[in-house]
Amino acid sequence: MKIFDISWPISKATTGYKDRYIVSIDEIKNFNRDGVRETAIHLSSHTGTHVDAPSHFLKEGRTIDEITLDRLIGDAVVLDMTTCAERITRDCLLAHENDIVAGGIVLLRTTNSDLSPTDKFSPHFVYLEASGAKYLAEKKVKAVGIDYLGIEHSQPGHPTHENLLNADVVVIEGLRLGHVQPGKYLFVCLPLNMIGTEAAPARAILMAK
Questions:
Q1: pTM over 0.90
Q2: Would strands 3-5 and 105-109 be described as parallel, antiparallel, or unpaired?
Q3: Of all helices (H) and strands (E), which one includes residue 90?
Q4: Which residues make beta-bridge pairs with 79?
Q5: How far apart are CA 185 and CA 208, in angstroms?
Q6: Mind listing the pLDDT tens digit for each residue in 33-50?
Q7: Max CA-CA distance within the chain?
Q8: d(CA 87, CA 153)
Q9: 1-12: buried (b, 16+ CB within 10 Å) or exposed (e) per residue?
Q10: Distances from the Cα of 72 to the Cαs of 88, 139, 141, in angstroms?
Q11: Cα–Cα–Cα angle for 99, 104, 108, nearest 5°?
Q12: Dihedrals φ, ψ of 145, to 5°?
């Protein structure tokens, strides 16, 4: 079975949202001095590939440890959104209506994937516009992922997040989809089991069906 790692690689050079300094990797022990290697790692909960919990934007929303893993494992479709130059709207998604099914997982492959994982942050990344988020919520998908560190920008009130999270649609940000062809896959995304946080870094893979 062909496995595609679609996780954002993490290093000190990893792109940070709005160029925030989010990764430090410090040597605690080295082999020459201590005979072993040990590293201390400091990450934002929104580093690289990560899952947003409802509590990120909803006052009474669930935290990341309260999201069951079945919401992040299952049949997925990678949609080619590279013709959407700025935003993914309801009309963009209607062209793929037959591939967007209740209980499925939708992954949005855009021109964001052309960017390097260590590039300076791009504030004009392609995002899921509120009408597109509302459409996916209406279709009752269980998760949606996108190939940049955020799923929306320049929308007062964060309606994309609110439309999805209020409908119990899990949000996955920071995927790397440039090496993946559009189509159907088995998707597995496992966020760290962080207790009480609004998000957590994750490892995500696709398996060809």
A1: yes
A2: unpaired
A3: helix 90-94
A4: 108
A5: 5
A6: 999 999 999 999 999 999
A7: 60
A8: 10
A9: eeebebbbebee
A10: 22, 17, 11
A11: 65
A12: -125, 155
Q: Where are the domains of the chain?
A: 3-8+46-208
What count of other Cβ atoms lies within 10 Å of the Cβ of residue 189?
A: 27
pLDDT digits (tens, 9 = 90+) for 56-115: 999 999 999 999 999 999 999 999 999 998 999 999 999 999 999 999 999 999 999 999
> Which long-range contacts link 114-119 to residues 24+ away (Cβ below 8 Å)?
114/178, 115/15, 115/148, 116/15, 117/8, 117/9, 117/14, 117/15, 117/48, 117/176, 118/11, 118/13, 118/14, 118/15, 119/15
Spatial distance between the Cα atoms of 206 and 3, rounded to a whole number of angstroms: 6
Structure tokens belonging to residue 121? 């942050």
- β-partners of residue 76 are 105, 185
Could you tell me the two tokens for 198? 């609004």
Task: Specify the residue for token string 């799923």.
Answer: 151
CATH code for residues 3-8+46-208: 3.50.30.50
Helix H segments across 120-192? Answer: 130-138, 159-166
For residue 109 the two structure tokens come to 């492959």
